[in-house]
Amino acid sequence: MRTSRLHLLAAAGVTVATLALTACQDGTGTRDEGASASQPAATASTGTSSQSPAGSSTEGSGSDVNGGSANEVSANGGSGAGADTSGKGDSGGGRSGQGAKDEKGSGDAPATFTSCNGSNTAVSAQPLPRPVNHMLITVENTGSKNCNLTYYPVLRFDEMQWVPQPIEESKPQAVVTLAPGESAYAGVVLSAADGSGSGGATGKKLAVGFQGRTPNSSGGPSAIPGLPAKGVYYDSSLTVTYWQYSMDDALTY
Q1: Model pTM?
Q2: Residues 182-211, buried b or exposed e (16+ Cβ, 10 A)?
Q3: Spans of all domains in the chain
Q4: I need a labelling partner for 188 at 20 to 30 A (CA). Which of 46, 54, 145, 234 fits?
Q5: What is the CA radius of gyration of the chain?
């Protein structure tokens, strides 16, 4: 009985061991299946976890990109606006500076316009053999400042009641300005060379008038240059050139 019981127990032990081994193998398989099942879960969890950080990172990147973009726009916009504002400021500053300059310029007294006349010049009138029937008027600045000879001299012999007209072709491009010691000239056609002039007379006295800044305005005292003792013959052809820097230019007409 005891021997049979021992055999039964031994057999039972083998059976239990076999069942335990089988159960272990099944359990391992179950654990493997469970591990496989749990692995996707873990992967899903890991994926979810990775998606979440990725999502956060993406959102963060998006935030960073948007934020960066916004910052860049703000920076660029701010910088651009700042540059524009600065540019406008510079421009404004330039205009302001120009305005200040203009105001300063307008605040300064304008350059004084001084006419050459009988008080600051020496004037001579010389009849010439050539060109025929011509006379040369010379004006020298004897003053200490520049003076201006505008338009043409206004001539008057004795009590003459009319004013000789200018030769328009002789009009210069600019006003003749004389520095101290410099001279300018005007040519006078006394009479027609072919004798076509009328109302001939002999002048004993000549007054040379000076014009101001505007035509026919007074430029100051007249000059009374000396004439030859026999006087100077003139007729209705009497004309005069505009003031010239050159003697040759004055005698061209």
Answers
A1: 0.57
A2: eebbbbbbbbeeeeebeeebebeebbbbbb
A3: 1-110, 121-250
A4: 145
A5: 58
